[in-house]
Amino acid sequence: MGSMPSMELSNGAVDFIDEVFLFGLLAGKRPAADRVREIIAKSLAKEALSVEETAQLLLADTPELIEEIFEAARVLKQRVYGNRIVLFAPLYIGNKCVNDCSYCAFKRSNATAIRRTLTEGEIREQVESLESRGHKRLILVFGEHQAYDAEFIAKSVQTVYDTRVDHGEIRRININAAPLDHEGYRIVKETYHHETYARLHPRDTRKSNYLYRLDGLSRAFEASCDDVGLGVLFGLADWRFEVLGLVTHALHLQQRYNVGPHTISFPRLRPAAGVEIDNSLLVRDDDFKRIIAILRLAVPYTGLILTARENAQVRRECMSFGVSQIDAGSRIDLGGYTEAGDAQVMEREQFSLADVRSLDEVMAELMNDGYLPSFCTSCYRVGRTGEHFMEFSIPGFIKEFCTPNGLMTLEEYLVDYASEATRMIGERLIAAELAKLPDGEIKRSVAKRLIEIRSGQNRDQCF
Ligand code: SAM
Ligand code: SF4
Predict the structure, then answer these.
(1) Closest-lying ligand 1 atom to the alpha carbon of residue 144
(2) Any ligand 1 atom below 6 A from CB of 103
(3) Residues linked to residue 172 through DSSP beta bridges, in sequence order
(4) Nearest residue to 395 (alpha-carbon basis) of 45, 150, 116, 118
(5) Phi and psi based region of residue 335 (left: phi greater than 0; alpha: psi -120 to 50; beta: remaining)
(6) What percent of the chain has pLDDT above 90?
(7) What is the spatial distance between Cα 68 and Cα 290, in angstroms, rounded to a whole number?
């Protein structure tokens, strides 16, 4: 059994969430339309917004201004990311937990939760099942427990990478685990509001230390992890304050380490076994769309992740405001990819999912709506992360590299895993996207590689 990480902080760690300042910004007046347009213009020029500017967008709450913000977010998304949506799936490895977070079914006081940690063989089974549906990217999820120390997490990652079925392989893994000491991992932070954080995380638990959690990503950067994701659980405190918390955090990392977060996720609180939810702070769908659009404008180069906590219709509506990654075909009960069929069993899950459609169904819908679903992992594999990624991403890089890579990984999916109906939609989309690429070396090369993939050769090629 492993040990818990030390509570050591990053160099010069500070609590940079100044609530008086942030709430002060939100207490301001609705900005004039011209001011809102000025901020939008800055964002469309692909400059990150300050916290003050983000607050102004949050205060712009007339239907007309909200619509202008939505429209700008759509335009910016199209300019930076094109119509590409990256797909991934979560894989829950273990739900033992020493914490007692009020909102989560894995909390230690939930006696009804069925506790389980997948064995190496069980991890392999889950991964084989995911691969045989076409997944290439996973996020591994863990409770906080001495059994899930850095070595255990690293070993689980290795097991996943080592598992291959036919043409299937997992090419990129992210981690969603408790914050560690200087062994940085991707984490999701719950709320930036101090009093709420203290109330939801009992004082005798490791997670009650706000600064240790806030500082997690700084330690990750100091430990040379340059690809980290930020997030907040919406529904615990004022959503506008949480947006400012996210932007403050992103700017803090950018200033201190010269790299911002790679992604931001914005889960909304979901029903969970043994959890009583205070409905008063739940985020309504129309406000949820504003959150996504404003984040898109505030951090133009940060990927935005929308999870299957949201139902299919909300996901469909929100996608155009700036989302760049979604999960699909997800199961979040331990062993759920092979064992429970489609039944959702509350005692086995951390919370309940709202979108449990198959990957194939989600792929077909995305393509029918004009998106290019992508399984590309090439940036990580050729070292385009962190500072490098920022350099490359600035002059339209994403479209130039990501669209070709997206097309090739989509072709692999169509050839190896898609249903006949999805394959037909996909082939039409690929032909249309290929025709749109400017004539030149890249276009010729993509056309040639697509033919190779169709004839069963040369998979996993990337630019
Ligand atoms: N145990 C680690 C931790 O707390 O940082 C790893 C992540 S936890 C297994 C996954 C995330 O799910 C949490 O960070 C939390 O934000 C989110 N979550 C917990 N309960 C939830 C609920 N009822 N609805 C939606 N998301 C929830
Ligand atoms: Fe444990 Fe994470 Fe759930 Fe909190 S959110 S109880 S730390 S699994």
Answers:
(1) 1
(2) yes
(3) 137
(4) 45
(5) left
(6) 70
(7) 11
Residue 281: alpha-carbon gap to chain centroid: 22
Q: Is 144 in the pocket of ligand 1 (CB under 6 A)?
A: yes
- Residue 186 reports pLDDT greater than 60: no
Q: How far apart are CA 54 and CA 297, in angstroms?
A: 8
Enter the tokens of residue 393: 């991403």
User: Each residue of 129-166: pLDDT tens digit?
Assistant: 999 999 999 999 999 999 998 889 989 999 999 999 99
Burial profile 227-245: b = 16 or more Cβ within 10 angstroms, e = fewer: bbbbbbbbbbbbbbbbbbb
* Bridge partner list, 230: 264
Calculate how far, in angstroms, residue 176's C-alpha sits from the geometric centre of ligand 1: 9
pTM of the model: 0.94
Q: Residues 341, 357, 288, 377: what is their CA dihedral angle, to the nearest 10 degrees? A: 100
Of the pLDDT bands very low, low, confident and very high (cuts 50, 70, 90), residue 255 is very high
User: In a mutational test of the pocket of ligand 2, which residue from 101, 102, 112 has the highest number of ligand atoms less than 8 Å from its CB?
Assistant: 101
Closest-lying ligand 1 atom to the alpha carbon of residue 232: 16
Is 135:87 a contact under the CB 8 Å cutoff? Answer: yes
Alpha-carbon Rg for the chain, nearest whole angstrom, is 21
Q: How many angstroms separate the Cα of 198 from the Cα of each of 62, 202, 245, 376? A: 34, 7, 16, 39
Of the candidates 420, 424, 423, which has an alpha carbon nearest to the alpha carbon of residue 412?
A: 423
Rounded CA separation 10/219 (Å): 5
